[in-house]
Design goal:
The protein has 311 residues and is mostly helical. The chain has twelve helices and four strands; from the N terminus they run αααααββααααααββα. Helix 7 packs across helix 9 and helix 9 packs parallel to helix 11.
């Protein structure tokens, strides 16, 4: 009996070193020696920030001091729109970013942006420095000269003064939360539009089980959805804007929808352009065979005039 020849391996070899699993991500890492930024998992795996906000935070933390990070600059740098770049507000709400307006000596207003790599850094920056310990008071000298027959007493050796006990650092003051912008409201309330908005919100859980809203949240968010409908946004477009790129750990679906309805509100559509005036087609005169423009075949103006005069 001839020996069986095996020409192919029993299974393809893995290109990834180490253990190979049938599911889940496999990390193949390389050690960075230059041009890298350390980002904590508290940011990279944040449960309430959107992916856009996390990406913006990582990009801003990788920039040097003095780099411009305004919405216009980020919109020119990335393909996202200004509405998506507005996710900077999420970083402010979670103490990863602080933006304040300051007036220069010449009167010009500029935006001062501070990036924090951890929310605790924002709290520590706002804490007041401990008060300095006052120096010890000098001891009073004895009044009057010593007796003439007695030699002046030798000065007593100075005793080492104990260092003042360390003062406990004050507890960091909690950073005040910025008030959230109000939800959009329709300019002209309409019962049919409000009904469509309510059905849209209540039906989100059919395709996305994590977007389960209570009746109170549906009543609170329905006017904002009606404002989108008033600006001629279709229900499918609204549903896509509310459900696209949902975070893995969604704790407050109503809060996420309220943020997207406010931050991504589209502008009103401009007025439709007036229809272009169409020209009548060319016709050949039934009498003189000359071309003229008219909606229907017949005779040209001159032939019609001659016919009227003859009559």
């Amino acid at each position: 009996m001839d020996t069986q020849q095996i020409s192919a391996p029993s299974r393809a070899s893995s290109r990834v070193p180490g253990r190979v699993t049938a599911f889940g991500v496999i990390h193949v890492n390389s050690v960075h020696t230059s041009r890298f930024t350390i980002v904590g998992n508290h940011l990279a795996q944040h449960g309430e920030l959107s992916l856009t906000a996390i990406g913006l935070a990582v990009h801003i933390q990788s920039l040097p001091d003095g780099a411009k990070v305004g919405i216009k600059v980020l919109t020119d740098r990335f393909p996202e729109s200004e509405a998506r770049i507005a996710a900077l507000r999420e970083l402010e709400e979670h103490s990863y970013l602080a933006r304040t307006l300051e007036r220069l000596p010449g009167g010009k207003l500029v935006t001062r942006t501070i990036s924090y790599n951890h929310p605790d850094a924002a709290s520590a920056a706002q804490a007041e420095a401990p008060a300095p310990v006052p120096p010890p008071e000098p001891q009073p000298e004895p009044a009057g000269p010593p007796h003439a027959s007695e030699p002046p007493p030798a000065p007593a050796p100075a005793e080492p003064q104990a260092a003042p006990p360390p003062q406990p650092a004050p507890a960091p003051a909690p950073s005040p939360k910025r008030p959230r912008p109000p939800l959009p409201q329709p300019q002209n309330p309409d019962l049919e539009r409000h009904r469509v908005a309510t059905d849209l919100l209540a039906g989100l859980r059919r395709d996305h089980p994590r977007l389960v809203l209570g009746e109170r949240d549906v009543r609170r968010l329905a006017p904002a959805v009606a404002a989108w409908l008033e600006r001629e946004a279709s229900p499918d477009a609204i549903r896509h804007a509310l459900t696209a790129d949902l975070p893995d750990h969604l704790k407050q679906p109503a809060g996420l929808l309220a943020h997207r309805l406010t931050a991504l509100l589209p502008p009103p559509l401009p007025a439709a352009p007036a229809p272009a005036r169409t020209r009548d087609p060319l016709q050949n005169c039934d009498k003189c065979d000359r071309a003229f423009r008219a909606p229907d075949p017949g005779r040209c103006r001159d032939c019609r005039t001659d016919r009227a005069e003859a009559a």
